[in-house]
Amino acid sequence: IAGCGNPLFGDDGFGPAVVEELKKLQLPDNVKVIDAGLGAPHFLFTLIEDAEVPVKKLVIIDIADFGGNPGDVTKLRPEDLPPGAYRDAHSWDLSEPLQRLKDAIDITIIGCQPKRVTAPDFEIGLSDEVASAIPRTVSLVLTLLEEHYGTTIADMRKEGKETGGEQTTAGCSS
Q: Where are the alpha helices (DSSP H) in 86-151?
């Protein structure tokens, strides 16, 4: 699970913010949660090539302009991304690297519609709309893991094995 983005550019920090919440949870040992930051395309290739165990599934969490309302969350596949439609804050086209990986790895992109991305100007902090999407995104990631691992995550929730404070329905600590 890779959270992409830069917290210095407003809502572009969504991916790392979700990763921060996911790291508070006890997930299966073979699930890695990483903050991929800005170098996502290069980082992902290196991560996949250098993995001790072959990577079978990749979940990317990032902002994506899909025409929704700020804070809306959607699940996308690489083939849903027309060339040039998925770019980072520095205008790197990220859809092409994903197209090259999609036949070897199951890739899901969880995109949140941003309200404001301030690059090249710095602005730390997410808009209220995007911040409110974090618990829903954590819940969506847990659902994807449940689909992949069966009842493991659901059983962990039921048994109260998540870390952090008081549990919420999204699995986030409060």
A: 95-101, 128-131, 133-149
Closest by CA position to 126, among listed 23, 40, 35, 118 = 118
**Of 104, 18, 117, 11, residue with least CA distance to 60:** 18
- Tokens 């830069």 belong to which residue? 6
Q: What is the mean pLDDT of the chain?
A: 77
pTM above 0.90, yes or no: no
What does the alpha-carbon distance between residue 104 and residue 111 come to, in Å, rounded to a whole number?
21
161 Cβ contact list (under 8 Å, min separation 6): 26
> Of 96, 135, 90, 136, which is closest to residue 117 (Cα–Cα)?
90
What are phi and psi for residue 119, nearest 5 degrees? -55, 135
Residue 36 has φ and ψ, to the nearest 5°, of -80, -10
Look up residue 57 and give its two tokens: 């599934």
Do residues 131 and 18 make contact, with C-beta atoms less than 8 angstroms apart?
no
pLDDT at res. 133:
98
Do 141 and 32 contact (CB within 8 A), yes or no? no
